[in-house]
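Researcher: Structure for this, please.
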Amino acid sequence: MDDWKTLTARAGASGHDLVGWMMWDPPAIAAYEALGVPNGTGWVVAWRLASLGDVQPQAAAATTYSINPDV
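Model: Predicted structure, token format:
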């Protein structure tokens, strides 16, 4: 395939779908809820911040800007 724009768009869409499945899979959310994570979805904040280590609040806010405040 020589149409790199089409190939890139397809790869991006596939990656987006995979991340969406990993983050919002109903059985996974239920499992997190069973472990005590409120509503089973608060884990996404920790998932995004854990790799940063001990950072200032401004860095944490910049890293999580795209998370819905309701989470």
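Researcher: Any notable elements?
Model: The chain is about 60% helix and 0% strand. The mean pLDDT is 79.
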